[in-house]
Design brief:
The protein is of the alpha/beta class. It has three domains: 74 residues, Winged helix-like DNA-binding domain superfamily/Winged helix DNA-binding domain (Arc Repressor Mutant, subunit A); 101 residues, 3-Layer(aba) Sandwich (D-Maltodextrin-Binding Protein, domain 2), CATH 3.40.190.10; 89 residues, D-Maltodextrin-Binding Protein, domain 2. Helix content is 44%, strand content 21%. The strands form four sheets. It has a five-stranded mixed β-sheet, sandwiched between helices. Strands 7, 10, 11 and 12 form a four-stranded antiparallel β-sheet that branches. Strands 1-2 form a two-stranded antiparallel sheet. A hairpin with a 2-residue loop joins strand 1 and strand 2. Helix 1 packs across helix 2, helix 2 crosses helix 3 and helix 5 crosses helix 10. The longest helix has 24 residues. The chain is globular and about 60 Å long.
Length: 283
Amino acid sequence: MKTFLNVLAAESFVAAAERMFVTQSAISIRIQKLERELGQKLFNRSKSGVELTVYGAKFEQYARSSLQLWDQAVYQISLPDGFDSSLSLGCEDALWPELSANWMVELTRILPTTAFNFQVSTPSNLSSMLLLGVLDIAVIYNPEIRQGFRVEHILDDRLILVAGRKDHGGATSDDYIFTNWGAEFEMAHSRWYPDLKPPQLMMQVGAAIPKFLIDHGKAAFLPYRIADDYVASGQLHVVKDSPAFPFPAYAVWTENAPAELREPALDKLREAARNAPWIDIET
């Protein structure tokens, strides 16, 4: 699995070999063995590098999930000395600064003999990890509704249009960035801007967007709880007469984790949500 993913990331057998400190022939042998076991070719090779076949693209998600599951199994079984239990948590990167960081600090205080594995990832990846049992609790803006998932509204937010300069024309300008905040936002956005042409730049980088907007004077929709600090400091500016779209966050969990760990963790998440900072800005 690791060899397959390294070849995919490096886009080359040679580069993958350098990453893994083995020979190119060792990489080739491992991939050939994997292809024989699966009965399908995973990569097409050319002078410019490698690319996934149709079967390779299908296999990618399973390879990533299997590797994550293996890492989690190792973590669960080999708990460090002094710990008698473990809990795996996750959130979207946009929910880390204002919510999950404080949640994590409180959990380590009230559960001193519990080892925590915290991951920041995309909504789809977090949902997949929950489904596989790799993750116990996730905090997500747009959760997938799956069998066995428990979902609770945890935090209110909204998406507002902000820009790196005061005079920005908003979503109809050439330097507007469409930020992918999920299917509901995409539908609401298309209803509000029915004649808007697809922008040149689309991004899904969450909490990393503000600096890009500030450095380049561009505009995008951001969660209020991310944008408020930058607007209050004058680094970002709310685009006048622009819409705001509801964007609530949810706690999603399964019943896999013991209740004596899961329930205190959820209680502290609710507390962190109630105490999450909110700066009033003019929108």
